[in-house]
Structures are given as C-alpha cells and as structure tokens.
Request: fold
Amino acid sequence: MTYRFLLLFLTVSVLSVAGTVTRAQSAVLEPKTPIEWLQRANDQMSLRIPGAAPFHMKVTFHAFPGNELLRKKEQPQIIVGSGVYDEVWLAPHKWRREVTFTGYHAIEVESETGRKMQVSPEYEPSRVLMLLNALLKPIPRFIISEEFRSERGPGFKIEHLVIGNVSLVRLSKTTGMALINVNESYYFLPNGLLALENVSGLITSWGDDIIFAGKVVPRRISLKTGERELVSADVTIEGADPNVPLSLDLPVGLAEPGMTLRPIQDSNYKTPQLLSGPVPWGNNAYSDMSIWGVVDRTGHYREVELLLGVNANGDDYPMNEIRKLRWRPAEIDGSPCEVVAFLEHMSKPYSPLITSH
Reply:
C-alpha cells in the first residue's frame, strides 16, 4: 500500500459523501476548537440518548478478506462473508441487539431486570467489531469526555482542506501508548457532518445520509484500508412503537461486564499487557507499518492483518511472529473483555497526503 492509493481513496470517498448529504447546507457558525467540532458531530449522530426517538435499525453487511501476508500452507484467520445486525432501541436501558454472521450469533438485551447476552461462540469476529465501532459510536466517548481527554496525549490539530471542489476540516493527532501508537484523523463537512475517519490506516466513511427524528443517519458505511474494502454495510431505520411487546429477556443469567456487543473503548477497560516479550518487528526495523488485530478474552491475538505498509516487502513484516504474541486480557471490573489492538512502527506521524490551506 502507498500513500498515493490512500490519497486517491480519500478523494473519491469525500466527493461521494459530499454528493449524498441531504442535511440542509445552511450557514452555521464554525466551531473554534477541535472538541467543539467533535461534539457537534457527535450530537448530530447520537441516536441512543435519553429522550431520543425509539427506532428499529437493520444493517446488512459484507466482510472481505484482509492482507494477512500468509506463508505457504497457512490458513486465513479473518472471518469473511455476509451478515445482519438488528437493533430495536426504546430507551437507554431498554433495547435488543442481534448479530448473525457466518458461524457467529449473538443477542444482547437490556431491561429493568438488567443486561443479558447469549452468544456462540464467545469470540466476536474482527469485522463485526469494525462495523459496530462505526455504527454505535462514530466518535468515541473518551475523545469528547473531559474526564478522559487528558489521558490521550496532545490535542488535535485543526486544518482546513480542499479536495476537488469540496471544503473540509481535518482534525488529526498522534497518541503514544506503550506498544500502541494511534494516529487519528477526522474529516468534517462545513456544516459539521462527519464524513471520514482515519485511524492508523483504517478508513471509515459514512454517506447517503437521511434525517431520522432530527438525527443524521448514514445509510451507507464503508471501512477500507487504501484501495481495499474490508466491510461494506447498508443501513435502514424506522420508528419503533414502544407499546408493541418486545422480547427483552434471555434464558441466561446477567452478563459479565466484559461480555458485550458494545464497542469497548479506552476509557472503559484495563489495557491488555503483553506477556510474551517485545514485538518482533522483522528484518526491516525501519519499515513503516500499521497492524490491526483483536486481543480476545483469553489473551490470544487473532485475525491479525496489515493495514498500512511502506518501504518493505512482505518478508519484512513479522506477521507470523505477531500472531504468536500472548497478552494478559483487557478487563472491565475484573471481567476479561475483547478489544482491538493496533501495533504501529512509524518513523514519523502518519497523515494522508492532502494539501491544506
């Protein structure tokens, strides 16, 4: 993958998103700080808040293979295929979510009796995690929360950009956290609408928006790295009648804190700790790379793939060795949970090559 391909994808995606926005382009006062940009976009897209309109959402999606850099006779780990996410939300503590994806099936409910979850198998596939992060919390809570913002390193840099004839605002920053370096960029249209997110080479775009009960709902979600598509999803939403009976119980006990479909973010969990020694960066320790994987509830590193690689060939990337890494699992209130773990080796902070003005 090269920066040139990433630039091409960003250009095409931004022009596509800009062409499908249905929200009125009325003049608005431009926020003065990065947090105000992030908060405004979060307010526009937050469906699951007290007093919000009940809804029924259905998402059909397809998961594609990743760049696993497999050796001969190695079998792919990344789970691919088509799936469905179905959610009925009536109130912050009254909802039902269900995912069916190849051999994975999970149901999570919450009601006055508490939160329950029924899932088989327990491991949540990487592509499901990607989709739910984009769907449930486009802007993570820890970024806009005053409580956790100081823990995420330096603040965002704000830049005004032009791609083709589309004006954008980009917020970008690099956060160093032990083995994980996270490069984050968020792209907004002038009216504050979130168009693109780039986290260490994983690019999420939201488009074909509609307005539901005063909130922006993207009907199309795409996750890519460079020119390669990882997940594509189509979203439909309609109102839900709170008076219609909804099954909010499961024949199981209350769910452990770490067992959930909800995206688990930095502010929620105790970070996993590497147990098996330093990360083996391969033959070329100076090649730039961004690697995505999932640390499961047993501490195994699964579905490892290369998102971004510069100045090296496949033999230089230590993918096979990284798959062998073992971690002390992340935890929520002492309960093991599954989280995404980025591994980066970058000679300088990564940012898409888009000219600012």
Remarks:
- Confidence is low (pLDDT under 50) at residues 1-9, 18-27, 147-153, 349-357.
- The longest helix spans residues 3-20.
- The first strand starts at residue 55 and ends at 63.
